[in-house]
Coat F domain-containing protein
Amino acid sequence: MNTNHQASFSEKELMNDLIASEKQVTSAYNVGITEASCSNLRQHLTKCLNESQEIQYQIFNAMEKRGWYQTKQAQAQDVQNAKTKYTQMKNQLQ
């Protein structure tokens, strides 16, 4: 009996897994950053977060080009509303 079974995943399935993993990693970095009291650790985690976000963006772009990650264009008013909302939140925290 042959016990050498290899799971065969499509490129789309692998990329979906990669993007989901990167989203989880960035979430974990965010938690670590907010809970770290050591400045050096916070800086290192922030660097790792930025790198992870860049990887996630590259995966997203590759998927979008292949038609595997559909997005819709945000309306200009929706973008402005989001900017206003998050600026207000930031100002309240300062």
Remarks:
- The radius of gyration is 19 Å.
